[in-house]
């Protein structure tokens, strides 16, 4: 199961036939394992990873990391507040953190003003939010093991 999952994480477009050949399992066995992974919620979604710089998406969107200090709710801890936060369509990622703040929220908007308005009118006003700190994301180099920049070495460098 782990081997099949790792292959799909590297390339979700692999066919059942290809995975069967790579793992020396039957196609029926591979198909059953994949179905179980999907049914159990291990595999949540298949998606294409797009380089926003090359697709033009980055020119249209503003991304920011928001650090939130919050007061956890009695009996629900951080989960109830997290539930309210991740339901906003602007929220792309949400993490419970250790250290100086409690949540890291990655949001996306069409402009700096839209992001600032979302933080000041939606996030900062939620009951339990004590403080926010906004950092705008200027350029993505690597995320989730995917490198987004080309290896453009200076060709004038001495070759070793």
Q: So how many helices?
A: 7
Shape, per Cα inertia axes: globular
Give the strand line-up of the largest sheet.
2-3-1-4
Radius of gyration: 21 Å
Distance between the termini: 43 Å
For the biggest sheet, the summary is: 4 strands, antiparallel
Give the helix proportion (percent range).
Answer: 25-40%
Element-level helix/strand string: HHHHHEHEEHEEE
Low-confidence parts? none
Query: How many beta-strand segments?
Result: 6
Strand content: 15-25%
Structural class call reads alpha+beta
The pLDDT mean sits at: 89
Q: How does this model look, in words?
A:
The protein has 160 residues and is an alpha+beta fold. It is built from 7 helices and 6 strands; from the N terminus they run αααααβαββαβββ. The strands form 2 sheets. It has a 4-stranded antiparallel beta sheet with strand order 2-3-1-4. Strands 5-6 form a two-stranded antiparallel ribbon. The mean pLDDT is 89.
Layout of secondary structure:
Blueprint: H1 2-10, H2 16-23, H3 27-39, H4 52-55, H5 57-60, E1 62-70, H6 79-86, E2 91-96, E3 103-109, H7 112-123, E4 129-137, E5 142-143, E6 146-147
Antiparallel strand pairs: 1-3, 1-4, 2-3, 5-6
Please provide a brief summary of the model.
The chain is of the alpha+beta class and 160 residues long. Helices cover 36% and strands 22% of the residues.
Task: Identify the notable features of this structure and list them briefly.
160 residues, alpha+beta, 4-stranded antiparallel β-sheet, two-stranded antiparallel ribbon, 7 helices, 36% helix, globular
């Amino acid at each position: 199961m782990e081997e099949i999952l790792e292959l799909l994480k590297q390339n979700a477009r692999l066919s059942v036939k290809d995975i069967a050949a790579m793992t020396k399992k039957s196609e029926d066995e591979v198909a059953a394992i994949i179905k179980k992974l999907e049914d159990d919620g291990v595999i949540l979604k298949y998606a294409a990873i797009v380089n926003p710089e090359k697709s033009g998406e980055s020119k249209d969107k503003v991304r920011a990391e928001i650090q939130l200090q919050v007061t956890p709710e009695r009996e629900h801890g951080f989960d109830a507040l997290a539930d309210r936060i991740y339901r906003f369509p602007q929220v792309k990622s949400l993490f419970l953190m250790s250290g100086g703040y409690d949540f890291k929220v990655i949001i996306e908007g069409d402009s700096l003003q839209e992001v600032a308005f979302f933080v000041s009118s939606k996030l900062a006003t939620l009951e339990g939010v004590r403080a926010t700190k906004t950092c705008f994301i200027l350029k993505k180099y690597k995320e989730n093991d995917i490198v987004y920049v080309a290896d453009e070495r200076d060709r004038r460098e001495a070759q070793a």
